[in-house]
Amino acid sequence: MLIVASDIDVLARFGRALADPIRCRILLALRESPAYPAALADTLGISRTRLSNHLACLRDCGLVITSPDGRRTRYELADERIGHALDDLRVAVVAVEADKTCPDAASKGCC
């Protein structure tokens, strides 16, 4: 299998999106169903401003899309396969070693 730079860029972008716990929580919530920012902020217990920054990052990474709904905007995963990938990744990592933590877990970054 030939690995090309675009494959590496896509995986790195996905990894950067998952590097932040709030973005992970957003993706997992959107895996369940599309949502509006106000509802997501309430569900996740974060400010709308903070949520907006993370949603912009996920949108820029190509992982979420928006759909206008009257005066509101609904967010959802860009592709249902992202939800399956999240499930597969979670299960695979837990299966390997559930008691490990990433030494860089406290660092912040965006896509």
TrEMBL record:
PROSITE patterns: HTH_ARSR_2. GO terms for biological process: response to cadmium ion; response to lead ion. SMART domains: HTH_ARSR. It comes from Streptomyces sporangiiformans. The keyword DNA-binding applies. Residues 3-100 form the HTH arsR-type domain. This is HTH-type transcriptional regulator CmtR. Metal-responsive transcriptional repressor for the cmt operon. Binding of cadmium or lead causes the repressor to dissociate from the DNA. InterPro entries: ArsR-like_HTH (IPR011991), HTH_ArsR_DNA-bd_dom (IPR001845), HTH_Metal-responsive_Reg (IPR052543), WH-like_DNA-bd_sf (IPR036388), WH_DNA-bd_sf (IPR036390). CDD domains: HTH_ARSR. SUPFAM superfamilies: Winged helix' DNA-binding domain. The keyword Transcription applies. Pfam families: HTH_5. Keywords: Cadmium, DNA-binding, Metal-binding, Transcription, Transcription regulation. Homodimer. GO terms for molecular function: cadmium ion sensor activity; DNA binding; DNA-binding transcription factor activity; lead ion binding.
